[in-house]
Amino acid sequence: MKLKTICCALTLTGALTAQAQHVMDVQTQKLGATIQPTMYGLFFEDINYAADGGLYGELVKNRSFEFPDRLMGWEAFGTFEVKNDGPFERCPHYVELRNPGHGERRSGLSNNGFFGIGLKQGESYRFSVWAKAPQGEGKIIVQFIDRASMGENQQFTEAKIDITSKDWKKYEVVMQSRKTIDKGQLRIFLSGTQTVDLEHVSLFPVNTFKNRENGMRRDLAQALADAKPGLLRFPGGCIVEGVDLATRYQWKNTIGPVENRPLNENRWEYTFPHRFFPDYFQSYGLGFFEFFQLAEDIGAEPLPVLNVGMACQFQNWNNERAHVPTDQLQPYIQDCLDLIEFANGPATSQWGKVRADMGHPEPFNMKFIGVGNEQWDDMYYKRLEPFVKAIRAKYPDIKIVGTSGPDSEGEMFDKGWKAMKSQKADLVDEHFYRNEEWFLSHGLRYESYDRKGPKVFAGEYACHGKGKKWNHFEASILEAALMTDFERNADVVYMTAYAPLFAHVEGWQWRPDLIWYDNLRMFKSVSYYVQQLYASNKGTNVLQLTMDKKPVAGQPGQDGLFASSVYDQTTGEVIVKVANTSRQPQPIQLNLLGIEGQPTAQTLTLSHSGSYDDENTLDQPERITPKAGNVSTEAGKKMAVLNDELPAMSFRVYKIKK
User: Fold this and answer.
1) Which of 227, 158, 228 shows the shortest CA–CA distance to 187?
2) H or E element, residue 527
3) CA–CA separation, 452 vs 176, rounded Å?
4) pTM strictly above 0.85
5) Does residue 241 have an active-site annotation?
6) Among the options 45, 290, 374, 430, which is catalytic?
């Protein structure tokens, strides 16, 4: 009997020894650096049909007939004419439909939407149009149609509108779709013999995010809210610069009535010949007011980025003449100052009144502004300097975000940081789209950063696998691993954002991307769930976590493990995040120093039993998602001890009530 007891004890001790192969000490009693509310954010750029055709709820393409090919996106038939003396100064074009002169002929328009128009059975849609009847009255018929229908009728929903004035007026009708279709069309017939003029033809779901007119597609905006972001950076990205200064993003063109916002060329229209989309323009329906409103709706701090007087450097390599001369920057500087007034000024100020007139009398309380996107070298530094001086003089509390350029290290990166320190930028925007090896080898990236210098905004990053530029599972786990270093160095890293954010499955130019969709469905990539796990469990303070007194960052002897720990003062939880980037399960032991008793740890785990190249899809949107569980602990001397085994290539979050 005694021998049996001894054997059992030896067996248990051996098991615990095996489980304790990787011992991590978590100091729960001493709070470290404060974690900024902005730590995990979102970066929006109108790439991959992210705005028109994506997040922005408008279903009609080229609604104001302002594309260079005035009827691109439309099919016009019968007797019609495109005219340019319409009611809106910056969008003057419209279509006149006239009687074709024969009883069986028809005049009208059909719109193809963005890769078709997605409609859901039972859902309501708001059709609106600015119209006039030169003879004082006229009629149109509005239809939802399915040209591929094998039934008797192409149209499955119809409404009639009487045009009752010689003057331009807005007409609206709410139509309920009688079927679900992902590639429907909107068709407008002239009814009767009287001429009708049509401008700004629009179709929105009634059920937009927060039920706002001119609002966001509900499922996509809800995904942003569910990511629990602390920050929303907008509007880009390279579109801030434009291919040339004429096509740069200009925020003042994106506010005011949507009918009078001018069209802008999208620089992603033709950037990649192998992904060419000649119908990709910016309607500016999703403009700066809507961005600020969206940030408010999802609980994120807004971070607008404005042009510094430079066109895209990649496409204007060292071409000084492509940029604004340094003695002619004042209009660009004034744009920054006016934007701050638009966001924060009283309703009695010039630009604050514009905001108030758009429906938001209270300030948006903007705290950050970015000047320039991913630019580098002296061409950028000498232009940035007067912006910093002017913003500091008038708005000293606004935090200024500069950039270290497109490189993640090297001579130009170092030069950028030196310039940002010299100009006393508050944050430096770093970008890194790198491969697996880079992510695995940079687990200690921020330990060596100057604690007194500008703070870090890791503003664009994603793991781009070698030959695997898609949202596969392995890349997402490596992103989770690197993010432990963001968290471990929260005294330096104040903001982060994966990029890009959105992609239409039929209209993408760049991948990987966080959220994918077609006209009716969407799915969140595994990388999205990594971001969500961090943002939902960011805590308030860093806790020291070490293995053999070293940070757990994929170092020699750590077998591909990366880890960080935080404390959440609002919930009283210790939160530990561990990524296993190896191809084998890894046993770990967490010594939770300062926690007594045997609390149960709640867990959330991202793992996958299939191929590491697998990803979520429209047909399998939840193929790889976090799974909840729990792990028991044992009472040790002035600590709780947690033994666990991490699956190969996995990421796990532990939450323990202190």
Assistant:
1) 158
2) helix 526-536
3) 59
4) yes
5) no
6) 374
